[in-house]
């Protein structure tokens, strides 16, 4: 299993493939050690962390930072050997479920709109043998600022004792919340997974595999949700090349 890393944007990206990350997750489950967390990082997250100290701290504290976005992978090759492939949450979670056919796993779905995680749990149970959904919860708006609600969520996790918690609050809320409460999360692995719960419930459709294979999933999502994503993608298209240029200059100045 590869243990190499690629430093980029003040963070350390894992150079593992999707299959290697799945193996790492099950290794952590078997170790029954402290809770660890995984953060897939795309262009949007990189842009948001630029002036967000809390998100920066969450990314630096993650046990695995994964390249969730082909521009991140391409950019890494300007700095050295680079990252082998894109590893996004919406691929990682199903890959873990596939592996659970041989190695059972207990999962808690945390996030998405009311009722969505419940529907995702139903479809997961029907599709993947070996996956036990031990709990679902969709927190109310603003829960992250309510200590009592956070305590309630942490109590649910302690009672369910999942191996894996899939957290779908969206960035930067999910990363910051997990990092702040990690010491109280009773699980082996937490994965910040964005819209993955929505995809699993089929309330949102992922791009077809052929679209993903030519690295145009972002186009599919933009066409699916133009009002929500147009501004985000436009900002990333302007700022990410500039940020990457600065990173290349810094890399050349290093001894």
Give the arrangement of secondary structure elements.
Elements: E1 5-8, E2 11-14, H1 18-31, E3 36-41, H2 43-49, H3 53-61, E4 64-67, H4 70-76, H5 89-99, E5 105-111, H6 116-127, E6 131-137, H7 147-160, E7 164-168, H8 173-181, E8 189-192, H9 196-201, H10 209-213, H11 217-224, H12 226-253
Parallel strand pairs: 3-4, 3-8, 5-6, 5-7, 7-8
Antiparallel strand pairs: 1-2
Helix pairs in contact: 1-5, 2-12, 3-8, 11-12
Characterise the protein shown here.
The chain has helices spanning 18-31, 43-49, 53-61, 70-76, 89-99, 116-127, 147-160, 173-181, 196-201, 209-213, 217-224, 226-253; strands at residues 5-8, 11-14, 36-41, 64-67, 105-111, 131-137, 164-168, 189-192. The chain has 255 residues and is α/β, with parallel strands linked by helices. It has one domain (5-253). The strands form two sheets. It has a six-stranded parallel β-sheet, sandwiched between helices. A two-stranded antiparallel ribbon has the order 1-2. It contains twelve helices and eight strands. Helices cover 51% and strands 16% of the residues.
């Amino acid at each position: 299993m590869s243990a190499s890393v690629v430093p980029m944007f003040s963070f350390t990206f894992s150079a593992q493939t999707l299959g290697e990350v799945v193996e790492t997750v099950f290794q952590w489950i078997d170790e029954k050690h402290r809770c660890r967390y995984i953060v897939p990082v795309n262009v949007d997250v990189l842009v948001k962390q630029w002036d967000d100290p809390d998100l920066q701290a969450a990314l630096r504290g993650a046990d695995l930072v994964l390249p969730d976005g082909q521009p991140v992978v391409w950019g890494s090759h300007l700095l050295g050997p680079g990252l082998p492939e894109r590893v996004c949450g919406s691929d990682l979670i199903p890959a873990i479920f596939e592996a659970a056919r041989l190695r059972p796993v207990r999962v808690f779905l945390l996030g998405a709109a009311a009722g969505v995680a419940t529907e995702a749990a139903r479809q997961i149970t029907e599709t993947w043998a070996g996956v036990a959904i031990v709990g679902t919860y969709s927190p109310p708006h603003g829960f992250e600022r309510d200590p009592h609600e956070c305590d309630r969520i942490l109590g649910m996790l302690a009672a369910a004792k999942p191996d894996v918690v899939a957290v779908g609050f969206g960035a930067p809320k999910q990363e910051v919340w997990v990092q702040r409460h990690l010491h109280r999360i009773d699980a082996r692995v937490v994965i910040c997974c964005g819209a993955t719960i929505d995809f699993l419930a089929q309330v949102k459709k992922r791009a077809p595999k052929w679209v993903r294979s030519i690295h145009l999933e972002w186009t599919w999502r933009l066409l699916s949700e133009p009002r929500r994503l147009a501004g985000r993608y436009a900002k990333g298209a302007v700022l990410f090349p500039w940020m990457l240029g600065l990173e290349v200059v810094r890399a050349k100045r290093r001894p």
